[in-house]
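Mods, move this if it's the wrong board.
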Amino acid sequence: MTAAKRLSSYLIAPSQNNAEDGGVRIMSARVRLGFVGCGGIAQQHINALANIQEAELVAFCDIDLEKAQATAKKFNGRAFDDAVKMFDAIELDGVYFCLPPFAHGAEFLAIERGIPFFVEKPVGLDVAQIREIASAVDEKNLLTSVGYMNRYRQGVNRVRELLQSDPAILVLGGWIGGTPRPRPGVGIWRWWIQKDKSGGQFHEQVTHTVDLVRFLCGEVVEVHAFAAKGLNKGVPENYSIEDASVVNLRFESGAVANLWASCAANAGGGVTLHVYANQLTAQFSGWEHSVRIMRVGEDA
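Not the wrong board. Structure tokens:
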């Protein structure tokens, strides 16, 4: 049985009790999940999945074997420091790839085996590799997902629905914060501040905003960008990313957007996104993207 079939088989099956449930029942089989990458973002997914009865966490891989072992111990799973060994040793129904932008490529191991997978954003740094992975997924008709969770927020989908009849004209969005600093047990600062490993703040972090404006406004046809460098004070020697970025976008619809970001504002600033249409203004704020919707003829 393929991994995709195993993944769906626990959901629906013929029932012995046709009179009570219409011939459908929920099976008790659990979805066997593995993780490639056991860092901070992986732990958030793991903690959430641990509360889902149908999920069974069975395999954990990280180049830091001790980190994989510590996580595996919590769930009586197996630990690996090599993804190939994990895929060869464990039968999996699904995989989570929770990797820094520079470390992708193991997705091919899941694709070759027909295993559905989730991948954290951003999906990589190498555009050629990203397109190759996407093409291979399409050829396999494989179930996959990327960690752009804002698409599933209720407020976001309400605004998207309203924009179908009243399209966006202007979008303004910002992501302002500080620079990750060395902290015990936290590894993100080692790679996040290096351009060749993270791609910079806009690529690694503001990708959430870029995805959201595409979700709300459609595809982008033109990009114009500026960046500031060398102004951030007191940063580690290996700091090589932009201090701030300003990006202008033009959409297929003719709408325009201005997005700005800085990781040098250590006093903070937050996340904002404002969408302006002819009869509608939507103001998103905060990481949770709470939204205030104002429409002509309605109270704010």
